[in-house]
């Protein structure tokens, strides 16, 4: 039974053999402990080595072994126990090296006709597979030597690594043999790119050989990428002349799918990034302007949504692609503005952001409800609608909380259109924001009645908006020093609210607060409509006429950047209720401020706008990254859902079903990462015989 198991190992595929050898998993030969060992003599040592050498020779020549395998293993253990391990290792290495050196002749003498290149590859693969099987078998016999003497000597390679080293040195590193092997592989790949059927398992085995022998990058990858660049450079030039833009776009998409499939099927994973970059550069990057000049206007005129979506997806892969597309789109709209009046907004925009963020800003409804229909026309071209939703929610929150929306009816109309276009799930959080605002009004009516029954009523009229955390954008909490009367009023509201809604938690957001202050200047009484930060600064001047920046910072607890913007709005803007010394547009740490009693204004209620920090690139990136993080959870959930239902699926079918379920664009590389993540977390596993097939793990 033991011999049959080892013979079965000899027939196993290379990937299995490699993993078994590297992990030291071979435990077929289990030896009993013998108390009595033979006496070590020169004759015994010589006879034992001859027996072992004959066994190795039989394995290498695929003939039957005359000796019992347990007896051979015991013989190796005996020799190692008698301290002849160095000699035994040296003799074994020499026998293996002699055999491998003899194999090179069959390749050097092989006919050089191009018709024989495939048979040459098959012979090379057979030689490699035999070598791996033989090395596994030999290691099984010499396992004791491998796990004692060799393991204890860090400078000595293991028996498996010795086999790789010898094969690399005497077979693959031979200039003529390596060149012919690589040329044969490249020829097969070119045939496949031209539509012919090739033996992918042969290519996978040979490229795996180059990878295991650590010559993949130097011997193959560089030449492969060079040939790929040459092929697609010529193909791009030719097809741009021969085909119209829609046909060309579909061809590029198909080519990218084919190259990604090659990576999955037989190329090393490390090749994917430079390979795809080469294809994108030659088929898209080099012809980007020509594609847009030749076909964009036609696609827009004919409302070719499918091809426009494909164009967007492809150009998003190329550096500068989206900005170039948006510029071309802008030019189109300028020319056709008289046909689509609502789209004139494009022509007055000074800078164009990415489509989703720009459209989110434009979706601030106005009294001209007709423009919403025009916006929805553009919205349908956006594939990454979850990114649009993130930017739209951020801007909607600002409008609702500071009362800047021109029309609540228009806001709800826009929401209704988005719901009709994308479904209830897309707008559920946005609808929740409106619901919060309406519920807050009801709560405030009840709170005012509650305050009327208090024995110690406050002089401050408090209005609170209760925001459900899951609906609204995330806001960074900031601790500031509120006046005692404000703190007391907050506690009163907290007791009131939690008395009605036990188990809930309130977190105050001072960054969103605003107030109306009554003040008196020489001109007369005025009301100032200000932010909470502006309120904290102005209230200080009830106690003293002049403060330094540091004194204001200490008293209010406002963060430095926010404080300087607040002081700038009060002393450097249009409504200068504070005077700054020395004068200037910017606020410095050494500046001092005093109350401007001479302030005049024609209005009774004056709104002093806070200096708004422009949305930075980092903030835009942060918003986008949060969306992409949410996408990972959605991909994981979809993968588990599909595998739980189907139990077993091939890679291509799994990816196909995933694309049908997801509502946003995903790169194949990103899907592969999520699959690997679920495998690592034991939600699914690869088939042991077919790495391109997965099983659900219950």
Element layout with pairings:
Blueprint: H1 2-11, H2 14-23, H3 42-60, H4 69-81, H5 85-108, H6 117-141, H7 143-152, H8 159-172, H9 175-193, H10 200-212, H11 216-242, H12 245-265, H13 272-283, H14 288-301, H15 305-315, H16 321-335, H17 345-348, H18 355-362, H19 370-379, H20 385-402, H21 408-422, H22 424-452, H23 484-500, E1 514-521, E2 524-531, H24 532-539, E3 546-548, H25 549-556, H26 560-571, E4 578-581, E5 592-595, E6 605-607, H27 617-646, E7 648-650, H28 651-661, H29 668-680, E8 684-686, E9 693-696
Parallel strand pairs: 2-6
Antiparallel strand pairs: 1-2, 3-5, 4-5, 7-9, 8-9
Helix pairs in contact: 1-6, 2-6, 3-4, 3-5, 4-7, 5-8, 6-8, 6-9, 6-10, 9-11, 10-11, 11-13, 12-13, 12-15, 14-15, 14-16, 18-20, 20-22, 20-27, 21-22, 27-28, 27-29
The helical percent reads 55-70%
Distance between the termini: 34 Å
Q: What's the oligomerization state?
A: single chain
| E-strand count | 9
How many individual helices? 29
> Which percent band covers the strand fraction?
5-15%
Q: What is the typical, i.e. mean, pLDDT?
A: 83
User: Strand order across the biggest sheet?
Assistant: 1-2-6
Going by helix content, strand content and strand pairing, the class is mainly alpha
Radius of gyration: 38 Å
The largest sheet, given as strand count, sense and whether it forms a barrel, is:
3 strands, mixed
Instruction: Please state the overall shape, judged from the principal axes of the Cα atoms.
Output: elongated
Domain Cullin family profile: 339-571
Family: Belongs to the cullin family.
Protein name: Cullin-4A
GO molecular function: ubiquitin protein ligase binding
């Amino acid at each position: 039974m033991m011999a049959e198991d080892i013979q079965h190992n000899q027939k196993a595929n290379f990937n299995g053999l490699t993993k078994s050898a590297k992990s030291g998993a071979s435990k077929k030969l289990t030896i009993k402990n013998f108390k009595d060992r033979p006496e070590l003599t020169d004759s015994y040592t010589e006879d034992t080595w001859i027996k072992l050498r004959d066994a190795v020779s039989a394995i290498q020549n695929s003939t039957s072994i005359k000796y019992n395998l347990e007896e051979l293993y015991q013989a190796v253990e005996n020799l190692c126990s008698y301290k002849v391990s160095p000699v035994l290792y040296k003799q074994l290495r020499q026998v293996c090296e002699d055999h491998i050196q003899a194999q090179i002749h069959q390749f050097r003498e092989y006919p050089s006709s191009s018709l024989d290149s495939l048979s040459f590859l098959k012979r090379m693969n057979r030689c490699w597979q035999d070598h791996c099987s033989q090395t596994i078998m030999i290691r099984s016999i010499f396992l004791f030597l491998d796990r004692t003497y060799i393991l204890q000597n860090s400078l000595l390679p293991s028996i498996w690594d010795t086999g790789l080293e010898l094969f690399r040195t005497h077979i693959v590193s031979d200039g003529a043999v390596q060149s012919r092997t690589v040329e044969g592989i490249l020829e097969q790949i070119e045939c496949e790119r031209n539509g012919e059927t090739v033996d992918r398992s042969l290519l996978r085995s040979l490229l795996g050989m180059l990878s295991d022998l650590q010559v993949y990058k130097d011997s193959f990858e560089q030449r492969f990428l060079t040939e790929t660049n040459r092929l697609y450079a010529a193909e791009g030039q030719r097809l741009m002349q021969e085909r119209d833009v829609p046909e060309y776009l579909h061809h590029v998409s198909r080519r990218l799918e084919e190259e990604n499939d090659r990576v999955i099927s037989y190329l090393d994973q490390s090749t994917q990034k430079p390979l795809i970059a080469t294809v994108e550069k030659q088929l898209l990057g080099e012809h980007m302007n020509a594609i847009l000049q030749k076909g964009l206007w036609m696609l827009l005129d004919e409302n070719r949504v499918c091809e426009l979506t494909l164009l967007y997806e492809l150009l998003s892969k190329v550096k500068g692609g989206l900005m170039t597309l948006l510029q071309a789109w802008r030019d189109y709209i300028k020319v056709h503005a008289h046909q689509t009046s609502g789209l004139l907004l494009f022509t007055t925009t000074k800078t164009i952001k990415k489509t989703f963020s720009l459209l989110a800003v434009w979706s601030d409804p106005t009294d001209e409800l007709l423009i919403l229909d025009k916006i929805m026309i553009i919205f349908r071209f956006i594939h990454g609608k979850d990114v649009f939703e993130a930017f739209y929610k951020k801007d909607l929150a600002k409008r609702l909380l500071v009362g800047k929306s021109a029309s609540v009816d228009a806001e709800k109309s826009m929401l209704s259109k988005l719901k009709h276009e994308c479904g209830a799930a897309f707008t559920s959080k946005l609808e929740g924001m409106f619901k919060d605002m309406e519920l807050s009004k009801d709560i405030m009516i009840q709170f005012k009645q509650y305050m009327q029954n208090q024995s110690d009523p406050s002089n401050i009229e408090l209005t609170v908006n209760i925001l459900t955390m899951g609906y609204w954008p995330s806001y960074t909490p900031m601790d500031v020093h509120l006046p005692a009367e404000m703190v007391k009023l907050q506690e009163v509201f907290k007791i009131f609210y939690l008395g009605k809604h036990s188990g809930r938690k309130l977190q105050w957001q001072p960054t969103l607060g605003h107030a109306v202050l009554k003040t008196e200047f020489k001109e007369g009484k005025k009301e100032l409509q200000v932010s909470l930060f502006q309120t904290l600064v102005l209230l200080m001047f009830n106690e003293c006429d002049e403060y330094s920046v540091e004194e204001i910072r200490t008293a209010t607890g406002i963060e430095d950047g926010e404080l300087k913007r607040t002081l700038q709005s009060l002393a450097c803007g249009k409504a200068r209720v504070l005077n700054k010394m020395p004068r200037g547009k910017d606020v410095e740490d050494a500046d001092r401020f005093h109350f401007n009693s001479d302030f005049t204004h024609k209005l009774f209620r004056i709104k002093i706008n806070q200096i708004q920090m422009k949305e930075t690139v980092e903030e835009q990136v942060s918003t986008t990254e949060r969306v992409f993080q949410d996408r990972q959870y959605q991909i994981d959930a979809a993968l588990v859902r599909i595998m739980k239902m189907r139990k077993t699926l091939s890679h291509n079918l799994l990816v196909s079903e995933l694309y049908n379920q997801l509502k946003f664009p995903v790169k194949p590389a990103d899907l592969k990462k999520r699959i690997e993540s679920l495998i690592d977390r034991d939600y699914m596993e690869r088939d042991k015989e077919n790495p391109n097939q997965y099983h659900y793990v219950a």
